[in-house]
Amino acid sequence: MTHILETRQLNKRFGGLHVTGNVDFALDAGEMHCLIGPNGAGKSTFFRLILGEHLPDSGQILFQDQDITRAKPFQRIRQGISVKFQVPGIFKELSVRQNLVIALQHHVDPRLLAEEIDRLLEFLNLSHAQAQLAGNLSHGQKQWLEIGMAIGLKPRLLLLDEPTAGMTPDETHATGEMLKQLNAEGMTLLAVEHDMAFVRQIAQRVTVLHLGKVFAQGSIDQITADPRVAKIYLGEVDA
Amino acid sequence: MDNASPLRRTLALIQGPQTLGRGRRFWAGFAVVLALACAYPMFADSYDVGNNVYFFNWLFMALGLSLIWGYGGSLSFGQTAFFGVAAYCYGVLTINLGDAYGLTLFSLVLAVACSALFAAVLGYFMFYGRINGVFLGIVSLSVTLVLERFMAQTAGPEWAIGAARLNGFNGMGGMPSLTIPWPGGPIVLYPDLPLYYLTLALLVVIYLGLRILVNSRFGNVLVAIRENPLRAEMLGYDIRRYQLMAFVIGSALAGLSGVLYTSWGNYITPASMGMTAAALPIVWVAVGGRGDLTTTLVGTLLVLIVFQMLTIHGSQYALVVMGALLVVTVLVAPRGIVMALVEGAMRLTRRKEAR
């Protein structure tokens, strides 16, 4: 299988702190992959490096075999990466529909835009709320709206930073099913997630980051069975 | 709408989610106001009409600031820098070129282009240097204050460009007014009826043009950047380029104000780029409601008229009132007083309709 995303010896330091150390990581096209690890493991920094919010001190990032290590964030997005942030990154003072217009107008033919947005609103279960200000949505709806904006770009690779943070169990489950459907349609997903039940629901493969390094990698069963992982991370979590 | 021609699709953007006012009722009101503005000279002394063009002159700068700050979320405290650059450019050009052959109109275009170019250079360093928030205000204010200081020390005879003496603190005068070449003899736009109608026409065209701009895809991205710049960038938009473009357009409008003001009064002084001058546009736009072009327009006009009336009774006192007005706005109606009134009225009608 071909790699859609690959990092080679990726290093990032903040002052004396080594946040990621020589991270070698490869993501297969079409897989659903979860990134876990205790607080401070470097997960968020790793995401920011992929997105270009931070530039690495050394190492290389390849996306679809192209070197994007120095590309600007918006250029990476245009190449087919999209992201959903942990805290819902939506345009609060604008209507739900307008939020999606802004996400889609860039690459959708203006004559098809309205139709495409209707379809997306239905998929997100937000048709009834399209005229509301996005800031007035419930937390779960805000998360969905942002997922909608992120997938509206039709990305090859979707990064999700704790997509279910703050959601009710029902919402979490529904989100998992939504992501599975997207994956079935061919989208590659990489999620940072703490909720192990959710990881079990969606992940085909799991990578454990610890102290800025890849600590373990495998299926969820292999990871939960690994005593070293349990020691650093899963000890206090039922999984 | 789906199969409409590009022109019709563009014109349809004249109303949309980023502007208040749509539908028959709004445009009927707009037509009435425009008709009243056109009819006003028939009921007033032409001397007063010419004087009152003064109010229109500032509206372009206010609309430009609404675009940069209200829509784009970047508070520029130094729009007077572009006002001044264009004003002095117009003075220097017209004093040297004269007013024949439509050269004043050529000077107008060139002067506005100079202010736009200056904004492009300054804006490039600010936006691509990732200066934002309060620091953008500080840098832009510093620029206008430096220009004021610089122009204030140009009193000596060595400070002349061709025939144009810069004249330091006393200001530069004697430049010709805008002059339109005409077969029966050129039309000189003194503060009188023709200037009134020309400025009014410019104002209508730019107001409507900006409405189209802010409801276009460009405007969508601009408000997205105001709401959440990181999210906008992570939707694939080069946000700095959009911020820069809005800054250049808004600053060119400040330049247009500068040229119109200089042509109207045949005079420009460094004080027009000073602290007080720089602060006033912020007050106009904030009091009206910076987030919308129409509330900015109405608010600016009202504040200018009140300011003028107060100034007649003593200028210090008028400035204190302006400061108080800004504080009250921030505390009571942070989105602008005219905006708050409009929103209140809309809520009332909705409640009535619901009943």
TrEMBL record, chain A:
PROSITE patterns: ABC_TRANSPORTER_2. InterPro entries: AAA+_ATPase (IPR003593), ABC_AA/LPS_Transport (IPR051120), ABC_transporter-like_ATP-bd (IPR003439), P-loop_NTPase (IPR027417). GO terms for molecular function: ATP binding; ATP hydrolysis activity. Residues 5-236 form the ABC transporter domain. GO terms for cellular component: plasma membrane. Keywords: ATP-binding, Nucleotide-binding, Transport. It comes from the Bacteria. This is Amino acid/amide ABC transporter ATP-binding protein 1, HAAT family.
From TrEMBL, chain B:
GO terms for cellular component: plasma membrane. It is found in: Cell membrane. The chain crosses the membrane at residues 26-43, 55-73, 80-98, 104-127, 134-152, 195-214, 244-261, 267-286, 293-311, 317-342. Keywords: Cell membrane, Membrane, Transmembrane, Transmembrane helix. InterPro entries: ABC_transp_permease, LivM-like. It is a multi-pass membrane protein. GO terms for molecular function: branched-chain amino acid transmembrane transporter activity. It comes from the Bacteria. PANTHER family: HIGH-AFFINITY BRANCHED-CHAIN AMINO ACID TRANSPORT SYSTEM PERMEASE (PTHR30482), SLR1201 PROTEIN (PTHR30482:SF4). This is Amino acid/amide ABC transporter membrane protein 2, HAAT family. It comes from Paracoccus laeviglucosivorans. The lineage of its organism: Bacteria, Pseudomonadati, Pseudomonadota, Alphaproteobacteria, Rhodobacterales.
